[in-house]
Amino acid sequence: MIRYFYALLVSGLVSGLGVAWATPAIDGDFAAQPETSFMPKDDTGWTQIAGILPTDSEEVYELEFWNSIKDSKHASDYEAYLKAYPNGRFAPLARARAERYKKTSEPAQPRQQAQPVPPPALKIEEMDDRYEARKTANVREKPSSSARKIGELASKASVQVTGRVLNREWYRVKLPGGETGYVYAPLLGKSSPKPKTATKPQPIATPAATPTPASEKATRGKTFKDCPTCPEMVSISPGQFVMGSAKGDPSERPAHRVALSSPFAIGKFEVTVAQWKECVKADGCSNFPAKADTSDNAPIRDVSWDDAQEYVKWLSRTSGQKYRLPTEAEWEYAARGGTTSTYWWGDKIVAGKANCKDCGNNAWDSAKPADVGTLDANPYGIYDMNGNVWEWVSDCWHKNYKGAPANGITWERDNCRARVIRGGSWRNDKSYVHSASRFKYDAYVRYILNGFRVARSMQ
């Protein structure tokens, strides 16, 4: 994924000769090469010359991080760099800029961990009805999955419902002993009426259904939501595909066949700021990183892999379903949408298909990503898998696909520190947003370009 980068001069100019030398790459992958003319310095004071660095090296990741923020006027961007690379080669400049922009364009107080958003006052619509539990359901002291459990309803058990919480998806119930508690709304349903004595059905003439085109059957998955505040999901049928690229970056090789044997669902959109807020309100997510310049319908960003794990665990508790991050293979299978080209629409960038800085999107904004669903969906009906924000997946980082599992499961390793991100971001160029593009970040690092979408097992 990292193509040709600028190697940074560290050895100085040879006195009187005007010769610059590139830094030797790690493990001797590339020998230092002389450059016979002076090259201009950038604002870091480092002389840059054209060169190549090994893809899987810390120099490359640090340089890409720096390149993505070096034109920013937000102190928080430089603070994120310093958190990831406290002793990095750009650290002095990053500290200076962070201090400068704190005084000019950001609040004077230091950046603090956002406090959990207090829940709004409860508004109850009074009811008097009987519902039954669709499955085993916990009864909570308050309308929150983190509140104290005061009882439990067995599957199919009937309970008196005395009210509905208007600004949350919870019912107030009265237990047989008279105690009042709350049950998550999707876990309760109206009792099914007893069927009437069946009479012999009469044949009914129905108009012939309009057939669905075979191409649509093969590509577009069904969409669903497990709860009102849950992300909208697209169901994906199992199948085989060639993962990676034989001609791409070394991290994308070797191209190899993967067979997904089980159906799954993946988010139709990236997880949004509004959806993240619901997790914070319910005390399921401890971090609220949303920028002031993004809308509720923008993808949540500046979240770590660890943050994303908090969200999917909360979503699983809330919905009663098994949510998780997609595996790297599932992500690429969904991103390709049944195609084998560089991008799902072809081998060249087409305006209106991806959100990156040279993707031809008239609505592109260097300061922030687009709202989810702004551009076209791929053949599976999934949006924004090319650009917008990098997306965390479940896999541990491996520098290439040698030894990768052929069944699409999460590829782990002992003492895993770095996790895979996919798809590129709005601040990257088009070489980062193709279907096979992959990169890595430490799991605990929060970075302004990184977000995620969720997946769900269907069996």
Concise overview:
By secondary structure, the chain is α+β, with helices and mostly antiparallel strands. The protein contains 7 helices and 22 strands. The strands form 7 sheets. The chain has a 5-stranded antiparallel β-sheet with strand order 10-9-8-5-11, with no helix packed on it. Strands 12-13-16-22-17 form a 5-stranded antiparallel β-sheet. A 4-stranded mixed β-sheet has the order 20-19-18-21, covered by helices on one side.
| Beta strand % | 15-25%
Number of strands: 22
In angstroms, what is the radius of gyration?
26 Å
Widest beta sheet: strand line-up: 10-9-8-5-11
Task: Name the average pLDDT.
Answer: 79
Helical content stands at 10-25%
Structural class: alpha+beta
CATH hierarchy class name of the largest domain: Alpha Beta
The CATH architecture of the largest domain is Alpha-Beta Complex
Number of helices: 7
Can you tell me the CATH superfamily of the largest domain?
paralog of FGE (formylglycine-generating enzyme)
Order of helices and strands: EEEEHHHEEEEEEEHEEEEEHHEHEEEEE
Q: Please outline the major beta sheet.
A: 5 strands, antiparallel
Q: How far is the N terminus from the C terminus? A: 34 Å
CATH topology annotation of the largest domain: paralog of FGE (formylglycine-generating enzyme)
Give the uncertain stretches in residue-range form: 1-56, 106-112, 193-218
Shape: globular
Tally of discrete structural domains? 3
